[in-house]
Amino acid sequence: MSSNLSLKQYNWIILLFSVILISNTADVHAEITLSTNQTDYYYPLNQDAILRINSSNTYKEDVPGQLGYEVSTTINQGNAIFTSINSQSTSHVVPNGDSQIELNLGTASSPQTTTLTQLTFNYEHDGSDFTTTLGEIRIHFVEDPSQQQNQDQGQESTSEENQQSEDKQQQEDQSHDDKTVQHDPSTRMQNSQQSQNMNSVHKQIQDDINKANEEKQQIIDQLSQNEEFARQHREMLDKGYELKSGDVTPGDERSDFKLDYSKPDNNETQSIQGTMVNSSLESISNTLTQQELLDKIESDGRYVNFTDSLMREHQNLSRSVNFYDNDTKVDMNLSKIDPITNQSQKPNAGVHVEFENRTLKTMEFTKDKPNYLWYLIALIIIMVAITFILFRIGSQKTNHKTVISKKPFDFYNEASRILKLSKKEFENGQFKDAYGHVSESVRLYYSHKYQLKSESTNTSILNNLKDRNIKVNDLKTCFSISSMVEFAKYKPNRKDYEQIYMIAQKHIKGLTK
Predict the structure, then answer these.
(1) Which range is most confident: 135-149, 212-226, 454-468?
(2) Residue 138: which of 71, 81, 89 has the closest Cα?
(3) Residue 233: Cβ-neighbour burial (10 angstroms; 0-12, 13-18, 19+)
(4) Can you give the pLDDT at residue 150?
(5) Where in 95-192 does DSSP place strands (E)?
(6) Rounded CA gap, 317 and 347, in Å?
(7) Between helices 431-449 and 473-486, what is the axis angle to 10°?
(8) Please, which pLDDT band fits residue 315 given cuts at 50, 70 and 90?
(9) Phi, psi for residue 296 in degrees, rounded to 5
(10) 92 phi and psi angles, rounded to 5 deg
(11) What gap in Å lies between CA 474 and CA 66, rounded to an integer?
């Protein structure tokens, strides 16, 4: 038997090597693609808006991930414009090959436009995170069937890798093991069952969302026909305010609503809020502007008498005002002015005022009383200082100045502590606290890392990280799931919790290395 390869054997080796190389190359370029046939869809009133998203999976296996999108609904009711924004996020499995994702966006009894923004599918494959994002999709509910001008102007988006793997060889080995397992028929059957379960959960969540949207629509219809609401809304418009956003919280019998207004020129804000009970308006009120609050305070006899007495004592006063609690509470600091330097001294009097339903509810006054004990203390301090100086002069010892530095706040350890606390709370069944502390740990970490405001919100954190070119798709999913669980819009489960826990841990630990 010859030790040299025959020409036929050599050709077979070359062919086998080519097949392996092509197979590996195809896997590298595997991806998930989402697309729609149109960007604008039209549906008649009182008909379910079923939106079908085309998906194409070339990984040769089912790919689980997180499907998320934001729904913005604009409704015109007479002179009022209502806008509600809801974020949705759910687990979803994209099967191998071509398939469709169905989203039921509910129905509408009056003309309106619903907009889907940033529909994303986040998933992990071979140790890397990928995201497929579709652009804006508009759903129009119209009365006239002739307005259904559906055009073939679709869009398509392919998956993009979120981060690079640190150990490529390890990923390839893991990928090979995963593919070997996928060839096991029992494993494929188990994956199919998991896919069906996820689709069932997705449908249940979508049904709950549609039911909540229908309840909100009913409240909006009832509210738009109320004379008192129409009167207060017209007053806002007459004052130069514009309706910017609104929110409705349906309940079994009691439902709350709030509409936010602002002036374009100075961003001054006001709101109308109230309660509907059994389809009837129980209460409605609008907030006062800060100037209106001050006018009510300054016209109150108690305030006039108090400031008059201070003026008799100090002649000239300066005032600083602080509004908080949605402008329902006001604190004033009153300070006397030095006649020589014309500068305000430390506050020696104060006024605390609380409002409820546009009415001044309480007014409290504080005033410093002369205390001659401070003069005695000051004299003692001066004598001690003189004695110390004399002692220093007579002493031959050299003292070194000691600098006491305050230890900086270790926000990294604090964020890690809160994240660990979240895990204990989840195991103890404290789900809302657990999900809330996951988001809080990330907010605390980035707020101190980039010296942001201590009260930074999820949105402000995401916007700041985007400005720094930090990818935030996974963090947005983390915040979205946490918020839905905190406000009882989504049932907590271990899989989602572990997902957002790993996201938070990656941002606090992984991204800092």
Answers:
(1) 454-468
(2) 71
(3) buried
(4) 54
(5) 97-104, 112-125, 128-134, 137-142, 155-158, 160-161
(6) 10
(7) 140
(8) low
(9) -65, -40
(10) -150, 145
(11) 9
pTM for the complete prediction? 0.32
For every residue of 345-394, DSSP letters joined together read -S--EEEEEEEETTEEEEEEEEEPPP-THHHHHHHHHHHHHHHHHHHHHH
d(CA 330, CA 297): 9
Element counts in the chain: helices (H) and strands (E) = 12, 19
Is residue 101 very low, low, confident or very high in pLDDT (cuts 50, 70, 90)? very high
Q: Which pLDDT belongs to residue 180?
A: 41
Q: Is 330:321 a contact under the CB 8 Å cutoff?
A: yes
**494-499 mean pLDDT:** 91
**In terms of C-beta density within 10 A (0-12 exposed, 13-18 middle, 19 or more buried), how is residue 290 classed?**
middle
Q: What is the C-alpha separation between 492 and 500, in angstroms, rounded?
A: 11
CB 254 within 8 A of CB 275: yes
Q: In whole angstroms, how far apart are CA 257 and each of 46, 247, 447?
A: 24, 6, 31
**Cα–Cα distance, 233 to 81 (Å, whole number):** 10
For residue 243, the tally of other CB atoms under 10 A from its CB is 18
Chain mean position to CA 51: 25
Q: Token pair for residue 404?
A: 């006491």
Number of neighbouring beta carbons within 10 Å of residue 234:
12
239: helix, strand or coil? coil
Q: Name the 3-class secondary structure at 150.
A: coil
Give the pLDDT score at 29: 63
Please report, as a single letter, which amino acid is at residue 151. Q
**Which residues are bridge partners to 141 per DSSP?**
43, 112
As a whole-number percent, the residues of the chain with pLDDT over 90 amount to 14
**Whole-Å CA distances, 421 to 26, 435, 440, 491:** 44, 11, 11, 20
For residues 303-331, average pLDDT: 80
3-state secondary structure 318-345: EEEEEEECCCCEEEEEEEEECCCCCCEC
Closest C-alpha to 114, from 155, 84, 146: 84
Q: Quick one: pLDDT band at residue 199, thresholds 50, 70, 90?
A: low
**Ranges assigned E (strand) in 263-328:** 269-277, 280-286, 317-324
pLDDT top residue among 511 and 104:
104
Count of CB atoms situated within 10 Å of the CB of 397: 5
Local structure of 460: helix, strand or coil: helix
Q: Using one digit for the tens of pLDDT, what is the confidence trace for 281-300?
A: 877 777 667 778 888 898 99
CA 172 from centroid of its chain's CA atoms: 36
Residue type, 81: I
